[in-house]
Amino acid sequence: MSAAAGVPTVVFRALLGLVVRGAEEEVKMRKQAGVSPGSLRSGALRPGCIRLGVLTAAALLAITAAAGCGAASNKAPKASAPATSPGTAEGSKEDGPAKPAPGLPAALTAQRLDWATCPPPSAAQGGGDAPGRSWQCVTMKAPLDYHKPDRETIDVALIRKKATGPRRKQIGSLVFNFGGPGESGIALLPESAENYAELSTRYDLVSFDPRGVGNTATVTCGDESEQDPTRYAAACHRHSGKVLPHVGTSNTARDMDLMRRLLGEDKLHYFGFSYGTELGGIYAHLFPKSVGRAVFDAAIDPTENQLQAALSQAKSFQLAFDHFAGYCADTYDDCPTGNNPKQAIKRVGELLDRLKRKPATTHTGENLGPELAVRGIANALYDGEDGWDFLMDALAGVRDQGTGNDLLDSAYDLVSENAPSRAEAPRRATPSATPTGNSVAAHTAITCADSDQRLDPLDIDHRLPEFKRASPLFGEQSAQPLYDCMHWPVDGERTTPDVSANGAAPILVIGNTGDPATPYPGSKHMAEELGKDVGVHLTVEGEGHTTYGYYDCVTRTVNAYLLDGKIPRSGTRCS
Question: Is the dihedral of CA 28, 126, 476, 235 positive or negative?
Fold first, then answer.
């Protein structure tokens, strides 16, 4: 039985799938109605994501988680053959690769990136407005199969904004990945670029659509409302079977190294959030000597398999909720979650049962049921303390007035008109917890291409009590993504990612003690697995998913490293 609403697991799972897969169309409709988009969140499932978790965009059935250029087209300009006389002016590294890439044909290593003004993001990237004239896009050719690099190629969609400071002080390109997996860097980097204003004085800001995402080897699975994992996997194979074996994270890491060369960089300077830390760790393992200045914010745990990660995330979401409940009890005389975390679980459970019997009305005309309510609660936890007052008001609105306006807005990751403080908060450097573009299909395809775990549904069902003990509120939902790869047509590459990177430059690894989506212990494990003198661990004593731009000590430390090469001592703590 569902922890949230008392419905059988298979029924609850179907409801969750409808909620997640239907979110993209709902968001489009609500945007057309004039509702403002909310703050970005990365990872996690889309808890900004990371791969497993209550709100991850990639978990098709969980409640939670190729860029174009040209004036009238969503097709990006292609990389061209090298010019006979490449430009040599400072700041024009794009005119040619730094040096040949061993094992790749000259048609790939000698291509030149001819950047042009970006059009609006495509439907696969989530849609929206063009990012502006300061942004440039291009597509880079890469092998579909790195084992056969001289055969079929794919177009990798890239975006950049040139550095704004004096050329003599510029460092090079800083490549971003915002998590997921399944998030379009073409769409997300312009949305969050204000966070990186200081970095952009000395770096070209660069991001891309990873394999399977957006306009890069786009994964499509047909009808996203399909709930049966067997039929869904078959549809993905039918629509995208050629690319499914090649969308795993290790291949995207190889794309990044080709990208580094074509950008004219001897080293890859990198900033990864949530799942982006896994991508960065795999890159460091494959190309340790090519690692430049790298930062992993909200690091995943590379020692955990898919099942272990899902269970850890259930615990961390529950911990984040307990922290909220403690704050609510201490701050408000009539806190809707009661006087302590234990009472909070009981009261929220009663509220969800009430919503099952009689969904709450909303200002949009859509009713708020228990599935959307839980998703709204989880999304608010991504914002850390900035989301706590909003969440208190949202729960009180359901309890006292029977209206679900704020929780519905939170479920769809939109800013409520009744929550100005939340609307004014700085943006998390992470993707939305509501699926956009092809992120649902891409998340599943990448997850299943990476993980070799193919769990029996009976075994998952048998473990549900363990998940429920880990989190009475989020536990069972956290287990739902484990069903997704059961009948996937492609074998997974490994059980856990190898991120050992002996000989690499120092990598700054950040973990937040109150992060609901990427549990704090995982950041310590990431730093350890990278290797001695490579992983430099920074602990943030705070709340919410990701830290850069939210905690001054983190922003100062990261900027000092990326801009001036000043690395902190491993074990440093800040809040």
Answer: positive
